[in-house]
Fold this sequence. Notes:
Structural class: alpha/beta
Shape: globular
Low-confidence stretches: 1-12
Distance between the termini: 38 Å
Strand order of the largest sheet: 1-2-4-3-6-7
Order of helices and strands: EEEEEHEEHEHHHEHEHEEH
Largest sheet: 6 strands, mixed
Mean pLDDT: 86
Oligomer: single chain
Number of strands: 12
Helix content: 25-40%
Amino acid sequence: xxxxxxxxxxxxxxxxxxxxxxxxxxxxxxxxxxxxxxxxxxxxxxxxxxxxxxxxxxxxxxxxxxxxxxxxxxxxxxxxxxxxxxxxxxxxxxxxxxxxxxxxxxxxxxxxxxxxxxxxxxxxxxxxxxxxxxxxxxxxxxxxxxxxxxxxxxxxxxxxxxxxxxxxxxxxxxxxxxxxxxxxxxxxxxxxxxxxxxxxxxxxxxxxxxxxxxxxxxxxxxxxxxxxxxxxxxxxxxxxxxxxxxxxxxxxxxxxxxxxxxxxxxxxxxxxxxxxxxxxxxxxxxx
Length: 287
């Protein structure tokens, strides 16, 4: 089945997009756990998560609020250290990928500086990391070119307050692309916009991604969004977060904006909903 294959016993978890090659996966989490709070009263956020994501795959993590989705992304981004387990990016420690600007991060909020123009906001990472060494022969991309690829070439001189919420989010995504990172982490990037804008944005992202085929780990609460974008949907349990199921999405690529009208799409949507209901069913007394 495309997009999903068993992993060797020592990895003990799902693998998305395994190609059979000997190269290391783009992202590998092994038995990762993380709790917050003092040791005596620590609250677990994620527990024993193992996941292997192969190069060029778009993988979405879906789960209820508080199940540790954002925590997982922050661990992969090197912003948090796991209590147990380890994480690697292309076979190397996360810290090495961060130093080489190999990971792009798009938060839920655009986090644009209000006193800087659109172009200046996208130039900021280049200015702050002027001497950063980029691995694998990558080069810094022209911010104007990146903004134009997201349909923002006509607003370069505007400030964030002059933009709609959807346009602000486009700027935030464009900013993550300036170092051409091979791995892109996206934490519910469309959550703050209306549903119609959200649909437009996800298909714009899909179009850009299909041209670059970066490895993406994406977090959302939207089932249609997860299916439209992804090679696989990772379903997490309620608190603490564990991987309950990986559902492969074998819809052909490239996918246009009509993919969500197909019978195959709706069957996958039904399957994911059923798995979610099974995984999130509250525990209680029988009978």
